[in-house]
Amino acid sequence: MEQDYSVVAGRRRLVGGVTITETPYGGRVYRSKHEAATAAALVEAGLSDVRYEAERLPYAVGVYVPDFTLGDGLTIVEAKGWLSDDAQRKLIMVRDAHPERHIVLCLQNPHNRLKKGRKLTGAQWAKREGFDWATVDALADHLRAIGVEDDWNPDYHPYVAARNMDLAAAAERMRAAAEGGNEPNCA
C-alpha cells in the first residue's frame, strides 16, 4: 500500500532512514514543523541575528550541527520533537566538548515519556542533565528571562557567567530573575 505524503506544511522525504517534513517559514525551508515553529518563536522574541544550521561543532564522535545559533555565537537553540537515546548522548557530548556554549532545548512534548515503561520525561531529563529548556509557546519569554536579547551581553548571561567560574554572580542573577517571576527552566 502506498503512503500519502501530501502535507499542508510541505514536502515529505526520506533522509537517513527518517521521514522528514520540509516546512517553509520566512523564506527558508526547515526540516520539520517544530523547527519552523521554533524559528517563528525566535522571531517573536525579537532576535534579528538567528542563524539556522550555520555552523559545525566537532565533538567526541563526530560533528554537531546546531539548529539555531543566536547572535552572540554562544547560545544554541535545539528544537527537539523527540529525545532519542542517541540525541541524549550527543547533546551531553556536545555540551561537554563546548562548555562555553549555552544549549537551550525547545521541546515539542516535554512531558512525554522518553521510553515506554519508564517515567522519565524529556523535561525531567533536561533538568537532570543541566540543560535549559522551554516549549515553543514559552521560548520567547524564556530567552528574555535568561538574558538573551538582541543586544546580547555575555556579562549578563547567568549560564555563561557560571561556566566562566563566576558562580556567585551567576547565582545572584538567577535569583533576581526568579524574583521577577522568570524561572530559569520554564515551560
TrEMBL record:
InterPro entries: Phage_T7_Gp3_endoDNaseI, Restrct_endonuc-II-like
Entry keyword set: Endonuclease, Hydrolase, Nuclease
Top-rank lineage group of the source organism: Bacteria
GO biological process, one term: DNA integration
GO molecular function: deoxyribonuclease IV (phage-T4-induced) activity
Pfam families (UniProt xref): Phage_endo_I
Protein name in the entry: Phage endonuclease I
Organism per entry: Nitrospirillum amazonense
